[in-house]
């Protein structure tokens, strides 16, 4: 009897992930002979070595999601990238294909963060009653942040990226600059893209001057979805912001990943 088709999530740490529950429920409901597992590897080379060693795993693997810290590290091992993944240099969906004649295994990289964040942003703007914003502050400069910036650019929203290395990123600003008069207040949208505050390190949050948030309808989005209310969100709420976590983005990313994996 052949093994079920294997999907999974590659990253570290990922024990908090909701992806297995989402996909395994989908597989069970639809009668799909597949399972979704966690590939918890701090070092990408260890995952690649396991793929090489474990023939059952490599033979049944049809695709996997990628999260921190491997969204960029995985790229050299991919056969091709989607346009979004190529521009962002960040991959969070890998589709495994096998050549019919040779059986050669090829990995293709995609980025579903853009689709996921677009849906979340649309929801946040609508729910907050502030459907039009012209400026955003993006916290962090990793793969998720690049996807957010890509989406904001598509939506015509100007943005700055606050980073500890502002000179290394486009539109970068320093954390200290946010303390200057009128700076923090000028951002009607704040998007938190770092792992700070994620389970189990729930007491952490970016070092922002939260007390300077504009109390008139600021929207604060945290891409973290566990816990449901992060420390960043709680601090923003304290100073009057409308807050949203990353749960909707996760669901929309998962839907997009499944669409990619199902396509021939």
From TrEMBL:
Short name of any one Pfam family annotated for the protein: Shikimate_dh_N
Coiled-coil regions listed in the entry: none
Highest taxon above the source species: Bacteria
Residue span, Shikimate dehydrogenase substrate binding N-terminal domain: 9-94
InterPro entries assigned: Aminoacid_DH-like_N_sf, NAD(P)-bd_dom_sf, Shikimate_DH-bd_N, Shikimate_DH_fam
Keywords: Amino-acid biosynthesis, Aromatic amino acid biosynthesis, Oxidoreductase
Pathway: Metabolic intermediate biosynthesis; chorismate biosynthesis; chorismate from D-erythrose 4-phosphate and phosphoenolpyruvate: step 4/7
PANTHER family per the UniProt record, alphabetical: BIFUNCTIONAL 3-DEHYDROQUINATE DEHYDRATASE_SHIKIMATE DEHYDROGENASE, CHLOROPLASTIC, SHIKIMATE DEHYDROGENASE
Protein's name according to its UniProt entry: Shikimate dehydrogenase substrate binding N-terminal domain-containing protein
The species this protein was found in: Porphyromonas canoris
